[in-house]
Each structure stands twice: as structure tokens, then as C-alpha cells.
Amino acid sequence: MTIAYIGLGSNLSEPAKQVQQAVAAISNIANSQIQSVSSVYLSKPMGPQDQDDYINAVLALETKLSAIELLDTLQSIENSAGRVRKENRWGARILDLDIILYGNEVIENERLTVPHYGMKEREFVLLPLAEITEDLYLPSGESVNSLAQGIATNGMIKQGKLSY
């Protein structure tokens, strides 16, 4: 079993509901079990600011799935929620599910980069991740808690807890 950390985000079509439904769908992934879920955070969009704020969270999933099998499953959940993939990297999304970490593995291929390429610059990833982990270190040896303590919050607001 491997612990994978999944980032969840939405800013369209009742975002809090989208994230809660994604947690429910993830809880039903075969050969996997949610270990913990962070609080929900309201954050500013990374890209164009002419879109609604995001609801974000991070969860820890213990899984027997390979990283690619997990990616396929998460993309299926996104598609079921109505996600439309566009060229715009930072556009509005019904649902965005990202594998932030997959055990202590470093993965780089055409479909998946783990650790997630932007995690160290994203408060909406680091702060929820630090909330649910104790003494977690990236494959590079960097402490998630230290990275989280050093990042600007950019006005991010903790909203409450998700159920799972």
C-alpha cells in the first residue's frame, strides 16, 4: 500500500459540493482507503483573476493502485463531474484532482509529474497538506511543514472540514 496525497479544487457549479462529491467518489476507489482529509480552503485563482475563487482541500489516500491507475481513476471522477479539458492551464474548473505525492516516488513522464511540479509555490496545496501530515518530507528531503510555514497565504481562508 502506498500513501498518495491528492489535491482537490473547484470554482464552478457549486464548488464546495463538487469537492465533497469528489471525496465521496474517492472513498469508493477499489483497493484504497482515505486516511485523512484537510479542511476546505477558499483561495484566489492562480491564473486569470476574472474567475471565481477556488475551494481547495487535500486528502491522504492509502492505495494499492499504481500511480497511473490512480491518475486514470481520478480523471474518470473529474470527467463524471463534467470537467472539460481546455488549453488554458489556469482556467475555471468544475473539478481538479491532482496527485501531489505518491509515496516517496519521483515520477516524470508525459502523463504525470510527482511530486506535483508547482506544489512548493501553492499555498492551497501546502497549507492543507501540512494540516493532515506530521513530519512529511518530500523526496528532495524538504519538510512540508517548513515549506508551509514559509509560504504567503495570499488571503486564503479556512472554511471548515469535509466528511468522508
Protein described:
This protein is of the alpha+beta class. It has a single domain (2-161), classed as 2-Layer Sandwich (Alpha-Beta Plaits), CATH 3.30.70. The chain contains four helices and eight strands. It has helices spanning 15-27, 67-81, 123-132, 144-149, and strands at residues 2-10, 32-37, 39-43, 54-63, 96-102, 107-108, 113-114, 157-161. The strands form two sheets. Strands 1, 2, 3, 4, 5 and 8 form a six-stranded antiparallel β-sheet that branches. It has a two-stranded antiparallel ribbon with strand order 6-7. Helix 1 packs across helix 2 (67-81). The two termini are 20 Å apart. The model has no long low-confidence stretch (mean pLDDT 91).
Instruction: Give the name of the CATH architecture.
Output: 2-Layer Sandwich
Total domain modules: 1
Roughly how many Å is the radius of gyration?
15 Å
Overall 3D shape: globular
Q: What is the helix fraction of residues, given as a range?
A: 25-40%
User: How many β-strands, per DSSP?
Assistant: 8
| N→C terminal distance | 20 Å
The assigned structural class equals alpha+beta
Pfam family, one: HPPK
InterPro entries: Hppk, Hppk_sf
Function: Catalyzes the transfer of pyrophosphate from adenosine triphosphate (ATP) to 6-hydroxymethyl-7,8-dihydropterin, an enzymatic step in folate biosynthesis pathway.
Family: Belongs to the HPPK family.
